[in-house]
Amino acid sequence: MKNYEALYILDTKGKDDTVxxxxxxxxxxxxxxxGSVQGVQKLDRRKFERGHYGFDSGFYINILFSAPATVxxxxxxxxxxxxxxxxxxxxxxxxxKKAARPVKPKKAxxxxxx
Length: 114
Description:
- The protein is an alpha+beta fold.
- It has one domain: Ribosomal protein S6/Translation elongation factor EF1B (Alpha-Beta Plaits, 2-Layer Sandwich).
- It has 3 helices and 4 strands, in the order E-H-E-E-H-E-H.
- It has helices spanning 19-32, 72-80, 96-100, and strands at residues 2-10, 36-52, 55-67, 85-93.
- The chain has a 4-stranded antiparallel β-sheet with strand order 2-3-1-4, covered by helices on one side.
- The longest helix is centred in the first third of the chain and has 14 residues, at 19-32.
């Protein structure tokens, strides 16, 4: 199992009260493919710099989950069929054990020619 962070831009057609329902549907799809959801962050509606396909803003949500590496492509394909999901992006999150280890700087060698 690998840890992932997914960012979704939702086209809610101005109905921000439907965002929890859409987040639950996306979480259900992740669980249905064998993943487990650690958390859902509902960010906020943000305006796009340039209008896309007739609308100028989207609601952003961030989902943290664990899943096998083979789940990402089927999940991306399935969520492409959801009309509410405008954009989706997945990042693999490195485990905390590796990130917590401090990196020791290399010692500079003294120049013996001086």
